[in-house]
Amino acid sequence: MIGTLRHPLRGLILAGCLAALLGLFAVGQAQAATTAYPAGVSTFSGNAEGWKATEAACNVPALCTASGGYDGGVGVPAGSLAANTNITVNAASLFKSTVTLVSPNFTVGSGGPAKVHVDRQFSQGNLVELNPSLVYSVRLIDRTAATESTPIKETITATSAFKGFEQASAVKAGHTYALAITAETSTTTAGSSLASGSTSAHFDNVSLSVQSGNEDLGAGGGAITSSELRALITSSLIGPAVLKGNRVSVKAKCPKKVGIACSISVQGLLTKKKPATSTRAAKVGKGKTKKFALQVRPKARGKVKKAKTLLFKETVRAGKAKATVYKRLKLIHR
């Protein structure tokens, strides 16, 4: 009798142990979340998001120039940082330009493993004869410790499409950091018949992703803070906005990592203190996107109809957390 009961009992015990192990694994997976800096992934959809060119120089200033900054027409999606080299006079010389682009400072909440990501593209333009190439690097600058590392360094001859590149790094909790991209464009062949020309390097979707626990509220991670909410919603306004008649439509998303539904309000602005449209508010489920239709105010209609971009104010509430962000988006007229 005992022999007949032992086998089914053993099966029940094994099944219970397996379920418990799977439960622990699921909790561990749910709590292992990532936070992207600075203020989310830098998609540059609408503006430079605080990135600035700190260096733009050419080794032969009389013959070539370099420039760096925001390019709203190129990217995945449209919008990226550009490092351009322009050769104005043909001469039997080799050229080298250097452009450095630096992100806003940001402070990480959790320390440990991290990843640096960038999507990059390089066009030789009409300087193919000079065989230009790009050497770029992405540096992680620790402002607190006054140190830096170079997680990404790569040489490119030419790419017609954007390609992602990612490397491991590490950060310390509470330290303030910045990301810096340095693009060095150089020629290996002296000019012969080319009168002038230019090359361009583009960088998009730049981020430092830090692994951290207890950030996914849907997995029981706890209440989200206002600062965490602000970091998550920096890229939640989705461009471009569309003007049709006297109505502007724009999409906003409640990030899945918020863990609960968001109460979102959106308003178009001429400046931060001068509204251009009405305000619309709605409840949006986690991970969901909603289109907001905003009525252009009569006094702002003339300026909005001429505008190529429009500033938006987005306020999001999730639980007890509240955050407001501003973002400028491309405005399409229909």
How would you characterize the overall build of this protein?
The chain has about 325 residues and is mostly beta strands. It folds into two domains: about 35-210, Galactose-binding domain-like (Jelly Rolls, Sandwich), CATH 2.60.120.260; about 220-334, Immunoglobulin-like. It is about 15% helix and about 55% strand. The protein is built from three helices and 19 strands. Strands 16-15-18-19-13-14-17 form a seven-stranded mixed beta sheet. Strand 18 and strand 19 form a beta hairpin. The longest helix is centred in the first third of the chain and has 30 residues, at about 1-30. It is globular, with a radius of gyration of 25 Å. The N and C termini lie far apart (about 80 Å). Residues about 1-5, about 10-30 and about 215-220 have low confidence and may be disordered.
| Global mean pLDDT | 83
Give the class from helix and strand content and strand pairing.
Answer: mainly beta
What's the CATH superfamily of the largest domain, by name?
Answer: Galactose-binding domain-like
State the share of residues found in helices, binned by percent.
Answer: 10-25%
What attributes characterize this protein structure?
Jelly Rolls; seven-stranded mixed β-sheet; six-stranded antiparallel β-sheet; Immunoglobulin-like; 3 helices; mainly beta; 13% helix; 334 residues
Short description:
With 334 residues, the protein is mainly β. The chain has helices at 2-31, 226-233, 301-306, and strands at residues 33-42, 52-58, 64-75, 78-87, 96-102, 106-107, 112-123, 132-142, 147-156, 159-171, 176-187, 197-212, 237-244, 247-253, 262-271, 274-284, 289-295, 309-318, 321-333.
